[in-house]
Specification:
Blueprint lengths: L3 H5 L16 H14 L3 E7 L6 H11 L5 E7 L10 H18 L4 H24 E5 L5 E5 L1 H7 L14 H14 L8 E7 L6 H11 L8 E7 L1 H11 L17 H9 L2 E4 L3 E2 L3 H11 L4 H15 L7 E2 L1 H17 L5 H12 L4 H9 L1 H12 L5 H5 L8 H7 L14 H9 L5 H23 L9 H20 L4 H18 L11 H30 L5
Parallel strand pairs: 1-6, 1-7, 2-5, 5-6
Antiparallel strand pairs: 3-4, 8-9
Helix pairs in contact: 2-3, 4-5, 5-6, 5-7, 8-9, 9-10, 12-14, 13-14, 15-16, 15-20, 20-21, 20-23, 21-22, 22-23
InterPro entries: KAP_P-loop, NTPase_KAP_P-loop, P-loop_NTPase
Organism: Planobispora siamensis
Protein name: KAP NTPase domain-containing protein
Length: 556
């Protein structure tokens, strides 16, 4: 039973295609649907776009434009069947199922319905033959070997005769012949063509994506078929690169040679390519209107989205471009945080989240993670005109991106200066962003190392004297914690080497001074701080690599 509280409680935005397409999609869908209706049905359309750019939304809009009993619409989700040993099997089976669905809807036209069932029957024979020929030998763990028995497959299709001269010897030839016979009947059927929409291809591993595209080629010479495939072109090109490495391509490495294998492959597969235009920041209001209209949000959440969240969304545009899926992720991360920790200042939540969502600003966010209290103080000075407030503390921040400068000095970033520190906000955000909690502590230790380096600069005159004892002891404890963390990062062995370098440097700080040509002095301390600071910089960069492996794997 749905209560009043259920109806008014905040909701997340589902990662589903927009029900009311904006951004010019209706006009694009109408044009491509017209091409599908009027052209000879023996071609493929490639809808190219990056992750979250709206490929599924556009394909659904095209399918809606084509809604008619004169076409058979097939929806195939490649990712759902990625674990199948041969993706052509579920692809064919999905076509067969769509034909049966069409036949059931055409019961008042018995002849048309039976013709559709007949085509489905022939396809089913091919599917069964492929399935019969496949045999899997499952090994330990996730290791599996898949083999194909051509004889069994041909027998299942009724194509195996005693005299080789009278029967096909190739499974694909036999399948093509069977499908040709089936689709000759498409011309006589009441439906004019079969339109197959292939989605989520770029969620598959590159090799599997290429496998499906290769399987689709079986249909390309058959009358009656149109494919509409949504894919990130980079995925296809990467798959071609993996299958045909540059060193294996004839003449690819010759003097002045320009190898275009990947581009030519895409051109041969997709006769009608359409690249989705990037969504610009000025179109953000169009996207938000679509969300307001379709998300079924309560009045309070809708008002907060319009009046508070909206002003931050423009800042997550990269080079003036917006990714619709990233917009939804941003809103959902905010919604979840404010539901779990309602006492947090909502504007501070949004201000910090904006800084974290922009990958190009990650060096600044590293500083927030390492020394949030020091960052808050520096930000306050920076906002009042002190251009060197960050650089004085963190030299790597000497040249900030122009859009980051605008953000830090805008009213949107002001809430970051309201808190004594941002620790609670950082932990809250990381809970929604797939962070390793130990990694956050690693950043804290980097911040503590920088504070100790500033302490050494201010208080220590000679390496190994009494004034070096306290910072050396503190840095030694920090390095030990980092060493323990580094040992757990099996895929990041460089981190171990950096921490070992740090430990050797800390040992030098507390060691007895060595007289070398006149003894030690302030210059030695300055040199030690410089060298150790570079090691801490390397450590911070390596932590960023680990952070990216967590955060960005969760958004792909």
């Amino acid at each position: 039973m749905t209560t009043t509280a259920d109806r008014t409680a905040p909701r997340i935005l589902l990662d589903t295609p927009a029900k009311q397409p904006e951004l010019g999609f209706p006009a694009i869908a109408a044009a491509l649907a017209t091409i599908i209706r009027t052209s000879e049905p023996r071609f493929a359309i490639g809808i190219f776009g990056s992750w979250g750019s709206g490929k599924t939304t556009l394909m659904n809009a095209i399918a809606d434009e084509l809604a008619s009993d004169q076409l058979v619409i097939v929806q195939f989700n490649a990712w759902r069947y990625e674990k199948e040993p041969h993706l052509i099997v579920p692809l064919l089976d999905t076509v067969r199922s769509a034909l049966i669905t069409w036949a059931r809807a055409a019961q008042r036209r018995p002849e048309a319905a039976e013709r559709a069932r007949g085509i489905a029957r022939k396809i089913g024979t091919v599917v069964r033959a492929f399935a019969t020929g496949l045999s899997a030998q499952v090994g330990l763990g996730s290791v599996a070997k898949v083999t194909f028995d051509v004889d069994k497959a041909l027998q299942a299709m009724g194509a195996a005769e005693s005299d080789p001269a009278d029967s096909p010897q190739s499974m694909y030839f036999a399948a093509f012949s069977q499908l040709s016979a089936a689709f000759d009947e498409v011309q006589a059927a009441e439906f004019a063509r079969i339109v197959v929409f292939v989605d989520d291809l770029d969620r598959c591993l590159p090799a599997n994506a290429l496998d499906l595209i290769e399987s689709m080629k079986l249909f390309f010479d058959l009358p009656g078929f149109v494919f509409v495939v949504g894919v990130d072109q980079d995925v296809v090109e990467r798959a071609v690169q993996e299958k045909f490495p540059a060193h294996t391509r004839p003449g690819a490495n010759g003097p002045g040679a320009v190898d275009r294998t990947e581009l030519e492959y895409v051109k041969k597969i997709f006769q009608v390519p359409y690249a989705l235009p990037p969504m610009t920041a000025v179109q953000l209001d169009d996207l938000m209107r679509s969300i307001y209209a379709t998300a079924d949000l309560g009045e309070a959440q809708l008002g907060d989205l319009k009046n508070r969240v909206r002003r931050y969304l423009g800042y997550i545009a990269v080079e003036g471009r917006i990714n619709p899926r990233e917009v939804k992720r941003f809103i959902n991360a905010y919604t979840l945080q404010t539901m779990i920790r309602p006492k947090l200042d909502q504007d501070t939540v949004l201000a910090l989240q904006t800084l974290e969502f922009r990958r190009e600003w990650e060096e600044m966010y590293d500083v927030v993670l390492a020394e949030s209290d020091v960052f808050i103080d520096a930000l306050g000075h920076y906002r009042t005109g002190d251009d060197s407030a960050f650089e004085n503390l963190w030299p790597q921040l000497g040249l900030l991106p122009s859009d980051l400068i605008l953000y830090l000095r805008s009213p949107a970033a002001e809430p970051l200066t309201r808190q004594p520190n941002l620790d609670e906000y950082i932990y809250s955000l990381h809970a929604t962003r797939n962070y390793n909690s130990a990694l956050t502590e690693g950043y804290r230790d980097v911040g503590k190392l920088r504070k100790e380096l500033r302490r050494v600069t201010a208080e220590v005159r000679t390496l190994g004297d009494a004034s070096a004892s306290a910072p050396a002891s503190e840095m030694s404890a920090i390095a030990a914690r980092l060493a323990s963390f580094a040992q757990q990062q099996k895929d990041h062995r460089r981190l171990v080497r950096i921490v070992e370098t740090l430990q050797r440097a800390v040992a030098r700080l507390s060691a007895s001074p060595v007289q070398e040509g006149g003894g030690t002095g302030p210059g030695d301390v300055a040199e030690w701080v410089r060298g150790t600071g570079e090691t801490v910089d390397q450590l911070q960069r390596e932590l960023r690599v680990i952070r990216d492996s967590f955060v960005w794997s969760a958004t792909s």
